[in-house]
Specification:
By secondary structure, this protein is mainly α. It has a domain of 88 residues. The protein contains 4 helices and no strands. The longest helix is centred in the middle third of the chain and has 34 residues. The radius of gyration is 21 Å and the shape is elongated. The mean pLDDT is 92.
Length: 142
């Protein structure tokens, strides 16, 4: 298992790279479990269960990140360090505050939907945790 660590120092480049790694990790899992590769990537039900455990962890952590992004944008807006550079809101009064408010609403909705996803993953795990590979011809049944 690869640990990224939670200690600093932090930078915008590191933050972007870490987000890109998270997206690429899911992409790799998508390819690893696709068709013919699935028999290489997964050998027993415990493998699928282990993936679900980690996805549960991901969905547990995601709402915190979404809230922190919204809070950072709100703080930057309050400090006057944001502007809407283009788009439909670029020339409206108080546009930055409205934009950040809308973003925070979307992020709150995303966090709620992530919690719903987590609940469904938990339900799936209740079943995968109980699965085992079928006994082979040379093994005795349990």
């Amino acid at each position: 298992m690869t640990e990224l660590g939670t200690g600093g120092p932090y930078s915008p480049e590191d933050t972007r790279r870490t987000a890109a790694l998270a997206a690429e990790a899911i992409r790799r899992l998508n390819h690893a479990t696709l068709g013919v590769h699935a028999t290489e990537a997964l050998q027993e039900p415990a493998d699928a269960d282990a993936v679900l455990v980690e996805l549960d962890s991901l969905t547990e952590r995601l709402p915190q990140l979404l809230a922190q992004l919204g809070a950072w944008l709100a703080a930057e807006c309050s400090a006057g360090r944001l502007r809407v550079a283009y788009g439909a809101w670029a020339h409206s009064p108080s546009t930055e505050a409205l934009a950040v408010s809308a973003i925070r609403q979307y992020l709150t909705e995303a966090a709620a939907r992530t919690e719903a996803l987590r609940e469904v993953l938990h339900d799936a795990r209740q079943i995968t945790a109980a699965l085992a590979a079928a006994a082979g011809d040379d093994e005795e049944g349990a």
